[in-house]
Design goal:
By secondary structure, the chain is of the alpha+beta class. It contains 3 helices and 6 strands.
Length: 115
């Protein structure tokens, strides 16, 4: 897990980031980002994604581990919200591993130009 100081904590900060126009979509992740005062991350896995808390927590751990590995590569003045897509699941089980999530986040970081 990444450090608590990098967490988006309030409903306002989540909504503010989610309502921004800036986003990146890949095969298994939707990443919303918005310029802010400091670097913060949020991960949303809701009941719409999966009804099982075990599945939600597993994908959340994969994304958080990948963020922790790449935290130095993210631009400093942005908020990021990571939302996994249902394509990650197969018969209510996670069909993707941490390496694939890590690859998609690295692809996002290499493709995006932050102004």
């Amino acid at each position: 897990m990444y450090s608590r100081k990098y967490s988006l904590k309030t409903r306002y900060s989540f909504r503010n980031t989610l309502n921004s126009e800036s986003s990146y979509s890949s095969k298994s992740l939707l990443i919303k980002y918005k310029r802010s005062d400091d670097l913060k991350f949020g991960i949303i896995t809701s009941n719409r994604f999966s009804k099982k808390a075990v599945t939600q927590n597993k994908i959340r751990r994969y994304i958080a581990g990948s963020i922790q590995k790449n935290v130095s590569k993210f631009p400093i003045n942005y908020n990021f919200v990571f939302i996994p897509k249902k394509t990650v699941l197969f018969n209510d089980k996670v069909s993707i591993d941490a390496k694939e999530i890590d690859f998609e986040i690295n692809t996002f970081l290499s493709k995006m130009v932050f102004v």
